[in-house]
Description:
The complex is a heterodimer of chains A (261) and B (226).
Chain A: E1 2-3, E2 12-23, E3 26-37, E4 41-45, H1 52-58, E5 69-77, E6 80-81, H2 89-95, E7 96-99, H3 110-121, H4 124-128, H5 130-140, H6 144-147, H7 160-173, E8 178-182, H8 190-203, E9 208-212, H9 216-222, E10 225-230, E11 233-239, H10 240-245, H11 250-256
Parallel strand pairs in A: 1-3, 4-9, 4-10, 7-8, 8-9
Antiparallel strand pairs in A: 2-3, 2-5, 5-6, 10-11
Helix pairs in contact in A: 3-5, 3-7, 5-7, 7-8
Chain B: H1 7-40, H2 43-74, H3 78-111, H4 122-144, H5 147-177, H6 182-214
Amino acid sequence: MLQTPIADAAQICLRVRGLTVAYAEEPALQGISLDIPRHQVTAFIGPSGCGKTTLLRSFNRMNELIEDARTEGVIELEGCNIFQAGVDPAQLRRQVGMVFQRPNPFPKSIYDNVAYGLRIQSSSSRAANLDQEVESALRRAALWDEVADRLDAPALTLSGGQQQRLVIARAIAVKPAVLLLDEPASALDPISTLKIEQLIHQLKSNYTIIIVTHNMQQAARVSDFTAFLNAGRLVEYGPAEAVFTNPKERQTEDYITGRRG
Amino acid sequence: MSEHISESYDLELRNVRNALMEMGGVVEQQVRSACHAFVAHDAELAGLVRVADQRVNQLELEIDDQCVQIIARRQPAATDLRTLVAAMKASTDLERVGDEADRIAKMASGLAGAEPPLDQYGDVRRLSTDVIKMLSASLDALARQDAEQAAAIKQADSAVDAGYDAILREQLAAMQEHPHNIEQRLSIIWAARSLERIGDHAKNIGEYVVYLVEGEDVRHQKLRGG
Lengths: 261, 226
């Protein structure tokens, strides 16, 4: 069953139809159909093992890196099926960037972390602007002011919150269309968490953002649309304000209010 | 609704509901007593209404405090959030109902010793019966979380408004005819005005119940066909 809170088809960035993912013979997602709106923040919430991270990892075909993972169904990114023959997963992952729970900067300098992706895909014109592109990405990731005077310092000398923003800068440097965030603040302290949330808010005018979070209040704070998954199925999907004040499904209500389902 | 994983959260929400029910009970009795004291010129009963008002004020503070604590510490969502919002708003309305009852009781004290009018306050009695019915229905709907009953209260409010208008017109006409009795007639108008306001508060409580149960804000909507 398709659930979409998006009235205007022109606003759809990602279109998921009948997505089923299984690890070995164990189903992780069953018949998911939903639309992700462009330049909005969509949050996936649900209990551990509900399939929300599997769904997130489907958008840049990360599940293929897992042995025995099997995917059926269609995901269209701006109208093109990402599973069709001829789509290069590496190319797809540049368009659909990902940030993980634990910040994972490369053991290189701050500058080189951000420049890494740019160098790989660079044409000569791009390389000439490398300094500018690095600065721009660091500014968009709200990190520039804190690192401008020590770009050559090792990235691992940054705090956890700064590292996570550096990883976001690295992801957006290659100008993706979509940013996937998998529990991006769960390893951070409350202040660093708020900085990441503020950053998400700023980034959404340029990127379509999908976030997986265990923190319901975080989903309520940052997301425009919220999807609740349970046992591999999409239970409810709607505008965040409706999901958190007046969910339609009993399962959603029980989960977000902390009741025994 | 099933129970929370946190038992103390269930207990805290139950405490809010219990305090609200107690407040409703005290206020309803206040209105009944105030109306009886008014038509019977019973100063003693009127005094009891005024004492009860202290308990009502205290309950309003307790409910607000409990709700604020839960919001700060539990970050309630969905039904829990709507329960707390409805409780805070309903307690404000109930406190004001208590104030109106207090006002009626004050006039009853002033009337003590005077002869009741020939019609024995027939119109005021009828209006008070309707208003008390409305208030009971709204508290009942709140206790049972009955959105259907709550929605019906809005209909009753129109009849109460019409009853108040009729009393006002009649008393103004009577004042012009018999100017010697203006003080008592003003008391009737003020009492009717207070009753009409109590009806408005009962209507508000009904609207909060609809919000609590269905998540729909039905305030400031005209009745169908109205």
